[in-house]
Amino acid sequence: MTKHNAPLVNYRVLLALTAGLVASFGGVARSSVATTQAPLRPITVNLQDKAALRNGALYTLHMCVACHSLQGVRYSSLRKILRMSRTRYEKVIGTNGSHYHDTITSTMPSGVIDAFVKILPPDLTVIARRRSPAWLYTYLTSFYVDPSRPSGVNNTVRYNVAMPDVFAPMQGLQKPVMVAGLRFGSPAQVAVGVQPLTQGSMSRAQFDRTARDIVDFLYAVGHPHEQERARLGPWILGLFLALSVLTYLIYRLYWRRVITSEERWWRVGK
Residues 249-263: pLDDT tens digits? Predict the structure, then answer.
């Protein structure tokens, strides 16, 4: 009996040791990426606000596209998103010197990217689809002064951000609100908010409104068919309901006329 039970005991011990090692490594992995996160500022996207979408398009195309691209959309497609005629679109928004049907690419020369930026800035279409509107809104409004960074600024939701604070002339400079927390599992002072340091050309409410407009526009570009889906959704659900009722009636009619094996052969065809 002892010879038969010994291997079973060994396997149980080995299984327990393996489970303990997996749990310990899992705990180390979780602690190594633990980071105190700054709270996101809530925002409600309104794709029906044409004025907000057009204002966001102006700031995005004439400021953000200096470095970033929007290759998930063409200039001609923006006209439908902004609900503008082509003549008015070309007069108010423009195409930054590109053709009307071109995709929206960065206007920064490649030599400047190689000399100063080194890494191509991410496409805003991808960012708009990957990040939530609350994250984008918090990101745009949460740059703060950080002399240790090459650009002189940092961000509460994107630590060690490479992007400079291009909104500083409008928003003004900000200082961080620091708390003791964790960064990648290690104790550190973490920025969880910002406070005004200098006054920009806009008031705080005006800049927040501008940031919301930019987020609305980016969300509309990242989800170009959302309004169409919302419009067609009730009709499609109604069509499925009608087809379900029709299918059930056909089912009842079919099985009412099927002759079972209990009926005699001479009744077939009657």
Answer: 998 888 877 766 566
For 115, list phi and psi in degrees, rounded to 5: -85, -35
Residues linked to residue 179 through DSSP beta bridges, in sequence order:
190
Query: What are the tokens at 47?
Result: 């794709």
Task: Please return the burial class of 191, using the count of CB atoms within 10 Å of its CB with bins 0-12, 13-18 and 19+.
Answer: buried
C-alpha to C-alpha distance for 83 and 51, rounded to whole angstroms = 10
Q: Tell me the torsion sign for CA atoms 56, 60, 63, 64.
A: positive
Bridge partners (DSSP) of residue 189 are: 180
* CATH code of the region 50-222: 1.10.760.10
Domains of the chain by residue range: 50-222
Segment 195-238, tens digit of pLDDT: 999 999 999 999 999 999 999 999 999 988 887 888 899 999 99
